[in-house]
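Working notes for the structural subgroup meeting. M.R. asked for a predicted model of this chain before we commit to crystallization trials. I am recording the input and output together here so anyone reviewing the notebook later can reproduce the run.

Input as submitted:
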Amino acid sequence: MEEKVIELKKNPVVQQLLCELRNPELQKNRFIFSANMKLLGILLAAKTSEFLEQKEVEVGSVLGTAKHRVTAHAPVLVNVLRAGTAMLSGNLEVFRESETTVIAASRNEETLECTVYYLALNDVVGREVIIVDPMLATGGTTSSVCSLLKKHGPTKIIVQCAFAAPEGIIKLESEHPDVLVIAAVVDKQLNEKGYIVPGLGDAGDLLCGKKVK
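Returned structure, recorded in token form:
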């Protein structure tokens, strides 16, 4: 059976970044937090590339020729505002020819229901799509974004996140069993407010400041 959740728990560099991202003292420095999230995006992008369509190319050097397997096409990157911005920047270091789609969604903190209220969509017909969102918590936002994207005909959707909760994974597997999740870590659970535990808090607030409206 094909694995639907890939966790980077054996990568010590990823684990070090997770330690720093969780650290409340380091979180006070927004520049460090953003830089760590960008670097994590680079590492996650490299792992994600293994699951994209590939092709073989032949390249000549001054001493001969060599064959390499590379990604066949640049994926479309979906930036889930606000929290996805730093990780997206890391992905663009790896997928340098990728186009970016922007989606903004909000979650009702009482019902935990998600509403997508902004979409700037590049052509995704027949293309591979990577949704970049640091936190896969309840799965509501991610599932809504997957449903929206599927209306436009992508060949594959991969969800890339820093932190995931079992509840969000279960929801996504139930509603979108064809979607692969690549996570730096799968944490224990959600709390009563729908936050990942132990998680790191609100990634969007830590990156951009608290919402005022």
